[in-house]
Amino acid sequence: MKQRTAAILCAAVMGASLLAGCGTGTGNSASESSSATQIQSQSGAEETAASSGVSAASSAAVSTSSSDAAGQSSETVSGSASASSTASAGAEVPADGTYTAEFTSDSPMFKVNEANDGKGTLTVKDGKMVIHVSLTSENIVNLFAGTKEDAQKDGAELLQPTVDTVTYSDGTTEDVYGFDIPVPALDKEFPVALIGKKGKWYDHMVTVTNPVPKA
Fold this sequence. Notes:
By secondary structure, this protein is of the alpha+beta class. The protein contains two helices and eight strands; from the N terminus they run H-E-E-E-E-H-E-E-E-E. It has two domains: 88 residues; 117 residues, Immunoglobulin-like (Sandwich).
């Protein structure tokens, strides 16, 4: 009887020990699981923060690059506009005096006589320029410093011809018409209308370039 009682007590003690061991194991597992979860959460937060930092840095870089590109584009446009304005103003007016200058037009029918090698005499006085050109014949009877539309308005001041004698390379001479044409700017096209013996007006664009002081 005493032996049976002792066996039952031993069995009870062993059971209690097993239960305590299982409880401790479960607690450790739960603790380990909780620690792992915290580590994962911390790691995720750090990754998120790092990703946000990279994204912010990238955005800042893109913004800086865009600003620089916009600034360069603005400078380019500003520079182009400045260059265009300078070109449209024409070359600087030379000092008062007499020059030989080249005269060209958009028509082979309206040009300087070949005896003068495409050049006329440019006179500058008080900053105003006038070029005298001898033409190829007496067929152009009047010029107008402007368009043909304005040339036909009441009060329009037509340019009257002079009679110029030109000498060709073979020594022969010929009388042709010449005109004094106001020049608003060098190196820039400006309109000149002409009328011939048939009484019809025509629009042309002419350019005066390369003034060289006359001896």
